[in-house]
Write a structure and sequence with these properties.
InterPro entries: DNA_pol3_delta_N, DNA_polIII_delta, P-loop_NTPase. With 365 residues, the protein is an alpha/beta fold. It contains 16 helices and nine strands. The relative contact order is 0.09.
């Protein structure tokens, strides 16, 4: 029988997933340590080197404390953040303290004390995390690097299975596009959608479109959907509903500009033959990014100015909604948005009229 690992180390890039996994492991271990006075939870969160030292000293005192009744102790060192590639994490004093922590962990007797450490984020290039991976009962939660998107999808699918539901065609991709890399909200939305769908029923794409707020992109306004479908009647009705509830014109113009910028880039690539619209969305994006991504130097954040920073499925969905306008029409749209913004500044009490006139000019051409 293999010897017990000296401690448990759970880490990952997503604090919600790491904390959830740590809590589940702690509750499991607590079943073996029934004396609540023998269980201790310590914070490893530190904003500077001094706080790192304080946290490690508290941890040292805890693991070296003998149980009052002679049984095993359980110590959870949670929210450790000084193993990251940050100013605090890179400091020489911190690195020395981490080396002290390693020496302390090497002395732990798992028969006397069970130690659980949860850390996020972690610079896995460093010696300490590598040592933990070899020495501890090690768990990397959620993946990292290029697998982050797949990891998020895996988390959502696992949550759906626990709830007894699955996702219909396009529903999971739309959920990821609308929410983005917010694990907590993805799980909450999955619970909401599962309740709406009903046990054993699939979560349909239409449910996600109707019930899930657009946190990631910020442009799922009905007016934007209607405008780019080319339906003038729907657009005017959506604008009326927006202003009837006290809405402002500026978020609508922002939504239209963001969508239009993305479609301008898509149309240019399609006209150049670099990508094409297929049954599953936009085909050829990786090849196009390899050819043109160099022109977006430094633009790594998600932005409508950089097509390649967008969710590929989402881009294909936008481009295939209705008829994709011509490049000339998209350029004219952008000019119309600028004119409308100027008119709103001049006629702030006639915002709906300004946007209605703009929509008529764009969609009647």
């Amino acid at each position: 029988m293999a010897a017990a690992k000296p401690f448990i180390f759970v880490c990952g890039a997503d604090d919600f997933l790491v904390n959830r996994a740590g809590k589940a492991r702690f509750e499991e271990l607590a079943l073996e340590v029934t004396d609540e006075f023998s269980r201790e939870v310590l914070s490893g969160f530190a904003g500077n080197v001094g706080e790192v030292e304080t946290a490690i000293n508290r941890f040292r005192e805890s693991v070296q404390t003998v149980s009052m009744f002679g049984g095993k102790r359980l110590v959870w060192f949670k929210d450790v953040n000084f193993l990251a590639d940050t100013v605090t994490g890179r400091a020489e004093s911190t690195l020395k303290l981490v080396e002290d922590l390693k020496e302390l962990l090497e002395t732990i007797d798992p028969e006397q004390v069970t130690v659980l450490i949860t850390a996020t984020p972690v610079d896995r290039r460093r010696a300490f995390p590598k040592w933990c991976e070899k020495t501890a009962d090690f768990l990397l939660v959620g993946g990292d690097g290029d697998s982050a998107a797949e990891a998020l999808a895996g988390v959502v699918l696992a949550e759906a299975r626990e709830l007894g539901v699955n996702f219909g065609e396009g529903a999971l991709q739309l959920l990821l596009a609308k929410v983005g890399a917010n694990t907590r909200l993805l799980i909450e939305e999955t619970h909401k959608l599962a309740t709406y769908a009903g046990e054993g029923k699939p979560i349909e794409e239409a449910f996600v479109a109707e019930l899930t707020p657009n946190v990631a992109e910020g442009d799922f306004f009905e007016a934007a959907e209607a405008f780019f479908s080319g339906d003038l009647k729907w657009t005017l009705a959506a604008l009326h509903r927006h202003f009837f509830t006290g809405g402002d014109a500026r978020p609508i113009i922002s939504a239209l500009q963001n969508r239009n910028r993305i479609l301008l880039q898509v149309r240019a690539l399609i006209d150049a033959g670099d990508v094409r619209l297929g049954p599953r969305g936009l085909d050829g994006m990786p090849k196009a990014q390899a050819a043109y991504g160099k022109h977006f130097v430094g633009a790594t954040e998600k932005s409508s100015y950089n097509l390649f920073s967008q969710n590929a499925w989402y881009v294909g969905k936008l481009a295939s909604t209705g008829k994709l306008p011509t490049l000339r029409r998209l350029i004219d749209n952008q000019q119309e948005f600028i004119v409308a913004f100027g008119d709103i500044v001049k006629r702030s009490d006639e915002q709906e009229e300004v946007l209605r006139d703009m929509a008529v000019r764009c969609l009647s051409a």
